[in-house]
Amino acid sequence: MKVQVGIVGAGPAGLLLSHLLDRAGIETLVLERQSRTYCENRVRAGVIEQGSRDVLIESGLGERMKREGLIHYGVALRFGGRSHRIDFAALTGGKGITVYGQQEIVKDMIAARLAQGGRIEFEIPDVSIHDIDSNRPKIRYTDAAGNPQEVVCDFIAGCDGYHGVCRRSIPPGVLTAYERRYRFGWLGMLAAAPPVSDELIYVNHPRGFALLSMRSREVSRIYLQCALDEDPDEWSDDRFWEELDRRLEGVDAPKPQRGPSLRAKDVTQMRSWVSEPMRYGRLFLAGDATHIVPPTGAKGMNLAIADVCVLARAIAEYYTAGKTELLDRYSDICLRRVWKAERFSWWMTTMLHQFDDTSPFEKRLQLAELDYVTSSRAGSESFAENYVGLPLEYA
Ligand code: APR
Ligand code: PHB
Hints:
The protein is of the alpha+beta class. The chain is 36% helix and 26% strand. The protein has a domain at 2-72 and 96-179 and 271-352: FAD/NAD(P)-binding domain. Adenosine-5-diphosphoribose (APR) binds at residues 8-14, 31-34, 39, 44-45, 102, 124, 127, 159-161, 163-165, 287-289, 300-301, 304.
């Protein structure tokens, strides 16, 4: 079998790449380890930057997001017992973010690919990639009928997340990894309770960080900073709501309306990690396969979208003009933006959480930083510019 671009992984990166390449008349095959149901129901973050929203709409994937997504033109930072709103629209010339679950986007992308005759094979457990440093890279796997397959590609896109096979197929010594791990996690609850505010609230409190987000006008998504080894089973709904109330104390304390959990509570690990470069031979890595951000800046999926926009354009340029210039610069172009998102996500994480080794001096600095961001035009402008998303760059 032969295909122009073989794509490993049907997350937002792999699916959007397949969709964009299809629109450019380029054939793809997507191979995914998990089932379709699993991919469509994996609950993750839900904030879409302005630029990502534009890409989804322009490429024809935005219809349901436009109807069901909630557009927000600001967020609140809460510290010292008060909330401070950052007004994105005023600070960024009218930009905002859209709150729409990642799994909803994945559902929309899978439906669009299949409706257009795109090929996605789910439940493929044994993908392996070969000859990536030649002009004929290959993917081998066993198909659903149990037959061994070999697909010869022009390019392979590794969109298979942190635990995928693609990055690990690159010879030792080629990649450099940069990493910071945080010694806390987020305990997350999805609850049948209307959000307390129309916008997200990020809370710095001496008992730990909290985030009040949402999935709709009826469903809240709330996180509490917790220990890395926190056992979600020890958190009843009542205990969770009570702890949240404590972290919201102060003047104008929001009083969330309580509701039952819609599914088991989970713990999200926090990590900053970049592996460079994002290309080896004819293998191009995108999304979580090559960088991870802690969720505080809400950048994970947006970075995946930005990577594949660059990659789709570079591959299209190769087929239409026979040029490899953009492909050769793919990693450099993406990494400039990736590192700025890493910086922002690390900075927000540092500013908002309680660290077990923070000195009293550093705690005062944290509050000064929050005061600066919320009271200075320059400070809040920089926050807003990064939160709604830096421009997508193709050069
Ligand atoms: N073979 C085939 N598929 C694989 C393999 C493999 N060996 N290993 C992993 N996969 C699949 C996973 O099952 C998953 O569906 O690759 C997909 C990777 O998707 P994501 O993890 O969603 O990564 P990405 O598309 O880069 O999107 C990044 O996802 O993790 C969040 O916060 C992150 O929002 C960000 C977004
Ligand atoms: C979410 O709604 O899940 C969410 C929102 C903002 C974040 C992280 C997660 O920074």
